Amino acid sequence: MTVRSIKNTRMTDLNVLVMKPIAAAVGAVLLMAATPTIAEEDSQNWQLEEMMVTARKRSESLQDAPIAISAYSSEGLSDRGITQLNDLQNVAPNLTFQNNPSFGGASSAAAIYIRGIGQKDFVPTVDPGVGIYLDGIYVARSVGAIFDLVEIEQVEILRGPQGTLFGRNTIGGAMSITSKKPEEMFKGNVQMTLGSDSRADVKSMVNVPFTDDFMGRFSLAKLTRDGYVERSFDGLDLGNDDTLTGRAAFRWIASDTIDVDMSVGFTEDDENGPAIELLGINYAGPIDPDTPPLATIHNVGANLAAGGPPAPCIIPGVTDTTNLAVPGCYDNRYVTNDGVNHGTSESFSKTDLLTTDVTVTWQVNENLTFKSLTGYRDLDSSFGRDGDGSPHRVSEFLDELDQQQFTQEFQLLGASEDQRLNWILGLYYFEEDGNNINTLDFSVSNFVSGGQFDNESKAVFAQAGYDVADNITVTLGLRYTDESKTFLPDQFILENYFAGSGHPSLDAPFMQAGSRVLPKLAKEISIEETTPMLNVRWQARENVMLYASYSEGFKSGGFSQRVFPPQVAGATAPAGTADIDLIPSFEPEFVESTEIGLKYTSEDGQLRINAAVFDTSYDDFQIQVFTSVAPVTKNAASVGIRGGELEVTWAPAEGWMLETSVGITDAKYKSLSSADTLISKSNDLERVPDTTLSAAISKVTFLNNGSAVTARLDWSYRADQEMDTFNSPEIRQDSYSLLNANIRWISADEQYEVTLGGTNLADEKYLVSGIVGDAFQSYEGVYARGSEWYLKMLYNF
Fold it and tell me: Is residue 376 part of a domain?
């Protein structure tokens, strides 16, 4: 098949999957817009709630913002039974949000993908592809980024590169979270949720107006739940929840023109680690022929210890996958799919998080506003797990991660007297430093990986929108970014289990205790980049808006911090390689994206249709592959992604609400170095289902005493998705559907609220995350909890 015919096939598929349905929606919208409505004297008075968003750094209606964005209010999140940020993947189109422990074993590590772009690894030398912002403050690290939705006002999901106003590492999109602010009246609430697996969540809030000009809002939550995977060794329940989180927010109205918002928050997680199960063992050996086969090496030793010949316990195609005659074999006796883990090494996940922020808003005059956003975040985390899921020492991981970050942003927002021009100027500064130490115990060696990191980003940005006609607005944006990153590896071998064996590789001089894995030198990389944006908005009719945009973005380069065997010039690296060049690094990736969209609201306010189609091209794509004992990031590919989204909300009759979303993603490698990555160009991108669907129906019924009962049913669907770049079938997740439901009663005075609900009512078994260790020859997975129920009781005062 020629390149031309491949492109034609892809476009045909895209037409069927995306363009035709969305074109049909566009046509229907324009037809409705062109058809006059007949006003009736007793016309219905129920309408959809108007959503206000701040995705463009100023408050505007969701339907007026010419970008692809989904927004969810606190009430909407509660209606859906959503309690954690990652639950949004079941309702937002083209979003994958996983709690992915990777090799470290953190219980709260976010792996977020929007429109096919994201990052699964938690290490601080690799940046995410989707930026998370809490009250405008960038959250740099994925550990601790699975937010419990306590005191959240709204969540906005921006799809596509946000290279101008957000900038840093938003090459796939951004998630902007807004917390609830103090109010001018005394009030509070207490909430308790009981549910499956001994779930007991207690949340409380009190809002206190100390004076007319100074008020505070205080919240505290304790969240506990049993795990659902049991360790056979010690009965430890993996996947449990034990979280204490609190926040104090203050608002000071300093004058008629100046407001100051301040907050300090903390989170303490103390858990047993993620609910990981061993799903399979690759007895054939690693895909990379230069990678040490750690499971095979262990089995050779076990067989020798049992008095057998120098051959593995398991010989593919000759012996069975279980050899009980040799107790030390690492084989299928430890492979489970039934909620059991046979690991014996330490398993825990502890995270302490402290956040503070200050936002000052000064209304200089009617058309000019100055804002200052200052944020600090301190992360102290440690976690460990048994990577082989057995009593043997094949792969065991311990991590300590400390990180501190500081952010300062200044914004100047203005508008012309006639309001035809609105603009924003901004300065941005970000700095983080910390240390991530990985202690790794493998079949061949016990060694320390990781090191210190220090990152800095500075940017200046501007965006201006001008009404070139009464119904046409052109917006231009530009951001200049200057970033630098430094990594100081502190990696050395603690013990060589093959010392004295005489093995030419495993007992080499550079493999002995005390040897450096990487030179202890500080390596720095830097980049300066300018990213533009162009957007044209056409208000075709009062209730129909069309837009088109072009934007660029980039994601920073970084370092592959987990390396083994030691990098030695003339042995494991080319002779003459300078010490600084032995520290592996990778370059930034770049994106160009075009998008066309529409937003429609019916004249009676009961129907809302938002749709978009997009085409993105990624160069120097940072692909994460196994060509060592750990994931290695390389700029070895270019990627093309096309697709679209459709979101419809309809209130057909009083009390009724219908909601649906469709997401289509067609992601392909355009070029790929198979020699560098060991994967095929025809492979699918990891963690990217080509179709996501959701639908919901709810009905509010008012009782004679004035109270209200709301019944809601939610359905979602995700197509097949691969969990790794190798497309390993052992951790591939087939398509699945989820069904959730709840019924809620609210008293007439809205003082009491009771909700009874269930999630995953069909008890679907599906992977939340999959993990493959090529050197370890293991396939691991984290399954979601099965069918669950919950009872929530809320008292407002």
Answer: yes
Ramachandran bin of 76, using left for φ above 0, alpha for ψ from -120 to 50, beta for the remaining angles: alpha
Here the CATH number for the domain that contains residue 717 is 2.40.170.20
| pLDDT for position 351 | 96
Q: How many C-beta neighbours within 10 Å does residue 3 have? A: 8
pLDDT at residue 14, rounded to an integer: 42
Other beta carbons less than 10 A from residue 159's beta carbon: 27
Residue 675: per-residue pLDDT: 87
Question: What is the predicted pLDDT for the residue at 23?
Answer: 45
Helix, coil or strand: residue 756 = strand
Predicted confidence at residue 6, as pLDDT, reads 30
Contact call for residues 690 and 239 (beta carbons, < 8 A)? no
Range of the domain at 522: 3-38+52-796
Distance CA 722, CA 624 (A): 14
Question: Do residues 145 and 186 lie in contact, with contact meaning Cβ atoms separated by under 8 Å?
Answer: no
Q: CA 453, CA 476: separation in Å to the nearest integer?
A: 35
Q: Say if residues 120 and 142 touch (Cβ distance below 8 Å).
A: no
Looking at residue 18, the DSSP 8-state letter turns out to be: I
- Choose among 56, 55, 53, 52: nearest CA to 462: 56
Number of domains in the chain: 1
How many other CB atoms are found less than 10 A from the CB of residue 8? 12
Phi and psi (nearest 5°) for 181? -105, 155
Angstrom distance (rounded) from CA 321 to CA 312: 11
- pLDDT recorded at residue 17: 42
pTM of the model: 0.91
Q: What is the DSSP string of 547-608?
A: EEEEEEEEE--EE-----S---BTTTB-TT--GGGGS-EE--EEEEEEEEEEEEE-TTS-EE
Q: Rounded distance, CA 373 to CA 478, Å?
A: 20
Domain assignment present for residue 47? The answer is: no
Residue closest to 130 by CA, chosen among 528, 553, 549: 553
Examine residue 44 and state whether it is found in any structural domain, yes or no: no
The ranges of the chain with pLDDT < 50 are 1-44
E strands in 674-777: 691-702, 708-718, 736-746, 752-759, 767-773
- Tell the burial category of 653 from Cβ atoms under 10 Å away from its Cβ (0-12, 13-18, 19+): exposed
- Taking the C-alpha atoms of residue 615 and residue 682, their distance in angstroms, rounded to an integer, is 19
What pLDDT shows up at residue 40? 35
In a domain, 70, yes or no: yes
